[in-house]
């Protein structure tokens, strides 16, 4: 049984069927696609190069699919996923519109009993979760939300029919990667757009462009090289750290390099830099100042520019939104930056948003307020393992896993794309292919040996916690409050750090998986 029909669930189903496991995918949405099914807001697209984001497992698929843009928008990605599903005849193994409410381990039968909200019950030897990292949206804890008289929605629950804001007064709360994508698009439509910003994020230009047929033909000849490159970089992207030492490169050369990164498409500006930028405070501060000047050069009103420059964290220590006309949007007369750090939102009213400074009249209010990241989708399901222990309780102070794949006390449950695994904070499809391939081989071995129960030893979980925590100290990510570190102001008790991510990078993670397999799946108890 697989929960979730997004990028991870689709590939998992493909692999499981291929290996002869009878498999069903349960999906809450009315159709497949996961993230790309739900996030229909204008401007939604990924920040990885399209041809590095598609699945790599089928040479035939790679040759058949033509990406239209270097960074594909949501509709194109959703079409791609549907194409994959059709090509490999996966749809008939998926059940839609059924949200899993409970998953209870039956100790007598060594099986998971899975209940859905619409009353269906399934039994399965293995339960594989592909529930998404950013699939439990959180709304702001602001009084009066229910009183708003206009249209209001979270970007993740975007109403399909809402595509045009012409003539409207629109409010957007939140300036993370989602807010940064949506603002420039709505700016062009709305009569007035109010962007309610609490903390600005460091952003850099995406530099998207169409892919010509000639380019696509060339890309098709280079897929081996493209995926090979992705395998070698920490994030599974086409961009990896520059090998030169920051201090050994003369300043003129460094600046020229930074200019070049800033002018190039994609995440190079973040993860293609000197490694020290994300590891050393002083180096980070220099690069941060460089980016701040770019914002000052783009935004005409100096007061607005200063407000758009983060002061609480260095560049790249939170997820860097790649933008297309975001800063330029604030040069328009109809776009207004509302600093809610300075004048906090007091309440949502029937006619708009009231801050301590004034009331903003709105026709539509968009919550780009983020997610209960990485563990939120798990917490929404009542997962009960051995001895009646609930996963929600076990993870209440933060997730506890071995390899990000299993938790002690929860036999036969595989948390694919879950916390502390190698797919979080990577170019997602690259990360999940690694994990799903590894788990698939593991399951084949278990089947061949007639193993009925598999779960990690407590000590293995503890060792993994140490490794995950130590890796947090290697980069500056832990210095910023963001979803990478489990921060969420809209959930009680989410102010401190939670160890959600494996920060060792994909090559190291793959090596760790290989070591464990080569040592006879060390750390797992098989019965
Ligand atoms: P993020 O990156 O978590 O951003 C959420 C934004 O919403 C962020 O600017 C928050 O401000 C803001 N926010 C949240 N609650 C409030 C309240 N109550 N008042 C004002 N502002 C608020 O979520 P995204 O959806 O943008 O991106 C998530 C990931 O999806 C992204 O990184 C990509 O990988 C895809 P804060 O910064 O906390 O002050």
From TrEMBL:
Tagged with keyword Ion transport: no
Protein name: Cyclohexanone monooxygenase
Keyword annotations from UniProtKB, A to Z: FAD, Flavoprotein, Monooxygenase, NADP, Oxidoreductase
GO molecular function ontology, one term from the record: monooxygenase activity
InterPro entries: FAD-binding_Monooxygenases (IPR050775), FAD/NAD-bd_sf (IPR036188)
């Amino acid at each position: 049984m697989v929960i979730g029909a997004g990028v991870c669930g689709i590939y998992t189903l493909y692999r499981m069927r291929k290996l002869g496991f009878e498999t069903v995918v349960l999906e809450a949405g009315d159709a497949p696609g996961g993230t790309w099914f739900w996030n229909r807001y204008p401007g939604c697209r990924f920040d990885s190069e399209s041809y590095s984001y598609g699945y790599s497992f089928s040479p035939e698929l790679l040759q058949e699919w033509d990406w239209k843009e270097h960074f594909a928008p949501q509709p194109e990605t959703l079409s791609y996923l549907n194409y994959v599903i059709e090509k490999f005849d996966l749809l008939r193994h998926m059940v839609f519109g059924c949200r899993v409410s409970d998953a209870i381990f039956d100790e007598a039968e060594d099986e998971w009993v899975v209940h859905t909200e619409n009353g269906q019950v399934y039994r399965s030897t293995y339960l594989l979760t592909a529930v998404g990292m950013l699939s439990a949206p959180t709304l702001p804890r602001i009084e009066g939300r229910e009183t708003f008289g206009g249209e209001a929605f979270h970007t993740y629950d975007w109403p399909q029919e809402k595509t045009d804001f012409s003539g409207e007064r629109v409010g957007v709360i939140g300036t993370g990667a989602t807010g940064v994508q949506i603002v420039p698009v709505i700016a062009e439509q709305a009569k007035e757009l109010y962007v309610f910003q609490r903390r600005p994020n460091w952003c850099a230009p995406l530099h998207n462009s169409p892919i010509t047929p000639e380019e696509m033909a060339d890309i098709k000849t280079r897929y081996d090289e493209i995926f090979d490159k992705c395998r070698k970089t920490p994030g599974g992207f086409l961009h990896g750290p520059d090998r030169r030492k920051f201090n050994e490169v003369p300043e003129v050369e460094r600046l020229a390099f930074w200019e070049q990164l800033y002018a190039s498409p994609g995440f190079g500006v973040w993860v293609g830099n000197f490694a020290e930028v994300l590891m050393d405070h002083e180096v980070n501060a220099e690069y941060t100042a460089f980016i701040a000047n770019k914002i000052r050069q783009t935004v005409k009103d100096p007061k607005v520019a200063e407000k758009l420059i983060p002061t609480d964290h260095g560049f790249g220590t939170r997820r860097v939104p790649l933008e297309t006309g975001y800063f330029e949007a604030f040069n328009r007369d109809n776009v207004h930056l509302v600093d809610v750090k300075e004048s906090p939102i007091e309440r949502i009213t029937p006619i708009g948003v009231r801050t301590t400074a004034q009331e903003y009249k709105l026709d539509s209010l968009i919550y780009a307020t983020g997610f209960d990241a990485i563990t939120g989708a798990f917490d929404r399901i009542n997962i009960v393992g051995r001895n009646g222990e609930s996963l929600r309780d076990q993870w209440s102070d933060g997730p506890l896993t071995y390899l990000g794949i299993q938790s002690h006390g929860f036999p036969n449950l595989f948390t694919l794309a879950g916390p502390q695994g190698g797919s979080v904070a990577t170019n997602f499809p690259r990360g999940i292919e690694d994990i799903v391939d590894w788990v698939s081989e593991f399951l084949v071995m278990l089947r061949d040996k007639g193993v009925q129960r598999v779960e990690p030893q407590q000590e293995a979980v503890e060792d993994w916690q140490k490794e995950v925590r130590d890796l947090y100290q290697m980069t500056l990510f832990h210095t910023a409050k963001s979803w990478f570190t489990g921060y969420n102001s809209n959930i009680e008790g989410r102010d401190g750090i939670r160890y959600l991510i494996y920060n060792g990078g994909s090559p190291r993670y793959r090596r760790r998986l290989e070591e464990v397999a080569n040592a006879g799946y060390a750390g797992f108890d098989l019965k």
